Amino acid sequence: MKHSLIGLGLVAAFGSAGLQAAEVSLRILETTDVHMNLLDYDYYQDKATDQYGLARAITLIKAARAEATNSLLFDNGDLLQGTPLGDVMAKIHPLKAGQVHPAYKVMNQLGYDAGNLGNHEFNFGLPFLRQSIAGANFPYVSANVYVDDADKDSARAKHAFTPYVLLDRQLKDAQGNSHSIKVGVIGFVPPQIMQWDKAHLEGKVVTRDMVEVAKKYVPEMRAKGAQLIIAIPHSGFEKIPAGARAENGVAGLANVGGIDAILFGHSHAEFPSKAFAEFPKADVARGTINGVAAVMPGRWGDHLGIVDFTLDNSSGQWKVVQSQSSIRPIFDRAAKKSLAAADPMVAATIADEHAQTLAYVRSQVAESSAPIYSYFAQVSDDPSVQIVSNAQIAYVKRAMQGTDYEKYPVLSAAAPFKSGGRQGWSYYTDIPAGPLAIKNVADLYIYPNTLKAMLLTGAELKEWIEMSAGQFNRIDPKGAPEQRLINDAFPSYNFDTLDGVSYELDVTEPAKYTEKGVLAVPAANRVKNLMFNGQPIDLNAKFIVATNNYRAFGGGNFPGLTAAKVIFDAPEENREVLIEYLTSFASQTGQKALNPSADGNWRLLPVPGVKLGFLSASGAGKYVGQHPGIQLVKDNGDGSALFELTK
Question: Is 171 exposed, middle or buried (0-12, 13-18, 19+ CB in 10 A)?
């Protein structure tokens, strides 16, 4: 029956005497990983965009609601952090008592039914989080975060947030009759927030495994009358079975009986889509995982997630008899055209906060004598990473003066955060030579991480680099004459390069570690000629490495990197360290402009007879002339281009 999933009402219980059995439907809508992209505006480039923004997703929300008699709308978190607008509200012009966060000024007008907390909600600390969500006119859920007290490991453990809610809603059936439904909504966050935001959370909350908690509460929700259960994990879906306390636990949640839909996110991907076609128990035609309706609508408001349910009560109890999941984009990537105009409500609602953010990001901090870009950051030493490392080294060296650690060399680990791929081919740093403003600093360092310094041995440094080198596919010297270099499953933010030492990477060797940090090939040795001060590194010597809280506290599962190795816990964000470095550069060096060019301390060894290809943005072509070892092969016409290493 055409449009059978969207034009009917849902009868969830026998709300009126004499009603007959019915087949009815309900539409579930999801936004996720908005990351404070409320407007269709790129604060880093300081210009409007048609490729993301909740303002444009709102147009899709309104259209999807207009098609359905009944609908519910949920947000899956990572809402409050991600753009300078989020930073301004948390740090520059912090919320005042009773002030409503701009995210909720917008979302309250949309009538969200519930929201889930993502891991980035914790980046600014618990007080800011609680103050912010207090302004939401809808409930928040998070079931696997508990209060850290004497009862934290017992059955009496207290939840830090509401674990689940039971929503009573009135819905209409096809004949226009009104009926009651009780919808259970339960939320989850990656347990790893205890590592990633240790400074904010340690001693205050603890986390538990998502699946373990779901098995406890889903039956309880059913016992309390929930007739439909929506799980909202801020978590991704992985091909390999996940263990206890998994960061990406969607596959495990799909095995928990009693869950009717999984609205997920976190990994900024799109489900259902062909990218998941080979995943176990995934049906990308229907949009299910292990038979459970599931959807993940990208990031930054670039898609809307939809689950359409058909339910039947002929057995006396409501059962899901059919579901169809789908995602709707705001932008057609192939045709390069907008599919949804921005809803003007957002710009009108947060005009003051937007103006404050523009004033902040446009303020100048320094001047650069050369462009700073990240187009080739995954294959060669890079200016956007170099400038971050320079700032981190300078800061930590000053901090070590007069301490017992002053005798140790200071190195830096930094990664390219903006490197296209899943985030789109416009997702690169590209700052022209000239004035550097706050918006450029935020572009160089997009996360509100805090600076940490670790004391490590030369052997531990080598393993750090070995883990990072897992970004590359293994190249067969006797294989095809053209081979792709980058392992797209490896997140670029885990491709740390270490400054202060020099080294080469041999990609004909297998990767020593998997992308999850599991030792795969113990004898593998991709790291060659690891040198310090022109001499082979002493594996027993000690070095201080400047990094961020995410990496120092176990983020990325790098071997040997734990909080126990941290010797300096700076209160400043890495971004603040970068700002301080830039603002003081002229006065400390006597030079008007800094030169951010990379120093070439690492490189990939060539593979004779094999062309090493990689994708980057087509905009990278203007810089190829500055890289004798890279050449443009083909502009793909979709914003990307194929390049190859020539030496």
Answer: buried
Looking at the structure, give the CATH architecture of the domain made up of residues 364-645.
Alpha-Beta Complex (3.90)
DSSP 8-state symbol, 510: P
Q: Identify the pLDDT of residue 179.
A: 77
Instruction: Round to whole Å and give the CA distance between 422 and 178.
Output: 43
% helix / strand / coil in the chain, to the nearest 5? 25, 30, 45
Residue-wise pLDDT for 610-622, tens only, equals 999 999 999 999 9
Helix H or strand E encompassing 60: helix 54-67
For domain 23-354, give the fold.
Purple Acid Phosphatase; chain A, domain 2 (3.60.21)
Question: So what's the pLDDT on residue 4?
Answer: 37
Q: What's the pLDDT at 21?
A: 53
Question: How far apart, in whole angstroms, are the C-alpha atoms of residue 126 and residue 103?
Answer: 17
Say how far apart CA 183 and CA 70 lie, in whole Å: 13
- Beta-bridge partner residues of 428: 419
**Reduced to 3 states, what is the DSSP secondary structure of residue 620?**
helix
Place of tokens 């909600």: 121
Residue 564: phi and psi, rounded to 5, are -65, -20
Low-confidence ranges of the chain (pLDDT < 50): 1-19
Contacts of 438 (CB under 8 A, 6+ apart): 84, 360, 361, 362, 363, 365, 579
Quote the tokens at residue 7.
């034009």
Helix (H, G, I), strand (E, B), or coil: what is residue 523? coil
Please tell me the distance from the alpha carbon of residue 399 to that of residue 452, in angstroms, as a whole number: 11
Instruction: Report the DSSP beta bridge partners of residue 27.
Output: 71, 308
Q: Are 117 and 161 in contact (CB under 8 A)?
A: yes
> What are the E-state strand segments in 458-591?
482-484, 497-499, 502-505, 527-532, 535-536, 542-548, 566-573
Hey, where are the domains in the chain? 23-354, 364-645
Checking DSSP bridges between strand 497-499 and strand 410-414, what pairing results, if any?
antiparallel
C-beta of residue 602 within 8 angstroms of C-beta of residue 381: yes
pLDDT confidence of residue 10? 38
CB 126 within 8 A of CB 189: no
User: Residue written as tokens 């976190």?
Assistant: 266
Cα separation, 260 vs 279, in Å, equals: 20
CA 44 to chain centre: 17
Give dist(CA 32, CA 303) in Å, integer: 9
Distance CA 324, CA 182 (A): 21
